[in-house]
Design goal:
The strands form three sheets. Strands 8, 9, 10, 11, 12, 13 and 14 form a seven-stranded mixed beta sheet that branches. A four-stranded parallel beta sheet has the order 2-1-6-7, sandwiched between helices. The chain starts with a strand and ends in a 9-residue tail after the last strand. It is α/β, with parallel strands linked by helices. Helix 8 packs antiparallel against helix 9. The longest helix is centred in the C-terminal third of the chain and has 18 residues. The protein has two domains: 166 residues, Rossmann fold; 134 residues, Hypothetical Protein Tm841, Chain: A,domain 3, CATH 3.30.1180. 45% of the residues are buried. It has twelve helices and 14 strands. Strand 12, helix 11 and strand 13 form a beta-alpha-beta unit.
Length: 314
Amino acid sequence: MNYAIIIDSSAALPESFIQQRNITILPLNITVDGESFTDPTSEEELLNYYNSGRINVKADIDTRPLSAEEMKAYFLTNIIPNYDVAICQSVSRKLSDVYDNINQVANTIAKDSRKLRDELEIEHPFRITNLNSGTTGAGQGLIAIYAESALSRGMDYNRYKIQVSRFKSLVKGFTVVKDVVYSRNRARLRGQDVVNLPTAVIGKLVGMAPIVLIQNDEVHPPVMQRGFSNAANRLFEYAIEQITNGLYFGCINIGIAGSKDELNNFPSFKALQQKARENNIKIMISVLSLASSINFSPGCIALGIAPKNQNALP
């Protein structure tokens, strides 16, 4: 099957993994203090931007996904001439319009795709499927890794759609927030108020760091830990515990809005790596996109996992 997995830039995936697989990232427009640009996919570019310090609580920041019309043009130019099947996976529809915009494209593109492929003498019909991941960041990336694993092994298209729909409901996407006031302000712009302002200010003053879970389109009340390092270590300890309890997919996906080397500062991360090696669990590590860090805070850490114990929390 000649397919492309199409994701938006909120998904956390290693740059090398994207380059080696049939994965395409939809452009996302970002505006920071009046400067507009496309969310970078290069880890080097992302690190340069993080090191600049421009993503901060005082910055005027806006993100805009492709509109349905822009997305249709993108598909006609980049996807339909080159692939028979578009496997689309979007950030939670509670966080962005990407899923709804892709649905509009899927419902209106049949005639144009048929005409274009006839002109190119491509016999196979073009098919498109769209999945709302229900999460973001490392959780969303884990679903893409699962999809690529299944499809690259030759899984039938119809069976894949059933399997990935089941799997995505089991994926937990966690994010450890480094700046609780910044994260609270961004959440309010999305119409959410998981942490109110007094709690956020007090939390920052006493060094509290929330661990936010987004699963099945639900933003769960955060688990609060004293100190960012303690919160990150606790999340990695949770992942170790879930390896012991069992995973539905032998991979844990981790992203950081900064240098990947910073993860080595957390003792529990090193313990997680050892536990994963002992149990043949793959750990994927990436630099988070600006789309992820803009939503949660610079320096945040994300982890995607599909644990068999769905009730356990960090």
